[in-house]
Amino acid sequence: MERRRFGRTDLEVSRLTFGCGAVGGLMVKGAPADQDRAVAWARDNGINFFDTAASYGNGASETNLGRALAGNTDGIVVSSKVGIAANEMGDIGGAIARAIDASLSRLKLDHVDLFQLHNTLGRGDKVAPERGIVDADIVLSEVVPAFEKLRDAGKTRYLGFTAKGDADDLHALVASGAFDSAQIFYNLLVPSAGEPIPDNYPCDDFRELLTAADRNGVGSIGVRVLAGGALSGSEERHPLGSQNVAPIGSDTDYATDVQHALAFQPLVADGVAGTLPELAMRYAISHPTLSTVEIGIANLEQVQRAAEAVEKGPLPPEVLSRIRDIQSGFASAG
User: Fold this and answer.
1) Distance (Å, rounded) from C-alpha 36 to C-alpha 25?
2) Which of 107, 171, 242, 265 is most open to solvent, judged by the fewest CB atoms within 10 Å of its CB?
3) Is the pTM of this model over 0.90?
4) CATH class of 3-333
């Protein structure tokens, strides 16, 4: 599988990242043998980036990934995340230090390649620590120094954040020079990180954050490329995955996201892609500056199909033009 330089770091990452989160669910609730088999297949087929977090299954994902890797991280990139809770706001530095030690213990590693902030960013009356929303200024004044101490201690090589929240704050962090990577929301239903959208488009406007990340040497991880599963075109959820998923491509509910996803079905019928998920994956990798795309994994077949989609490469310009026409209809409907 093709690999790309990850921003200004010296990491080379596969175009596909193996997501170990709860949306897919395999690395949280799957059988150990199934987890080990999927991780081994991914490694054998060129996938070298594995992303987890302490919050995935209350540490279960990290524990299971650590077991599956069995300490053999040669050529492998491992990332994890920390979310700062409301009761930790008085000791952010201490909370972060304790979190990485716990993560490394579960992963059975002495360091991770990338450690990321997992909170949503806010400002003013949007700040709500009890809901995981932290002040962007505090991120720069308290989180970043704590992260830098971890890097200096050799516990992580690089620093990242999840780009969720107000677009002004996200762009400020990307331009700050403090972070080496950003997890950026980008998919068929939420294209705003990659291109301009109309004012009435029914999703968050990330104002071409992918371009800003590239301009500032920040590696980009495309997340929710299947819109939490909505771009399967079905409301049915895999039993291992999260059963309640918030909408990402509409202002209403997950069912509306699925209906929007079905608007792309004619492209599949015309033979542009074999399935909606394949179309979604190839759309994401069509953005020229996106370093890698991450999907949540429920079983081995899903990672195999995702790898096949990535190997087929980006979509041709004429298909991207048809996609933009379909997307413009969402704004009109709004």
Assistant:
1) 14
2) 265
3) yes
4) alpha beta
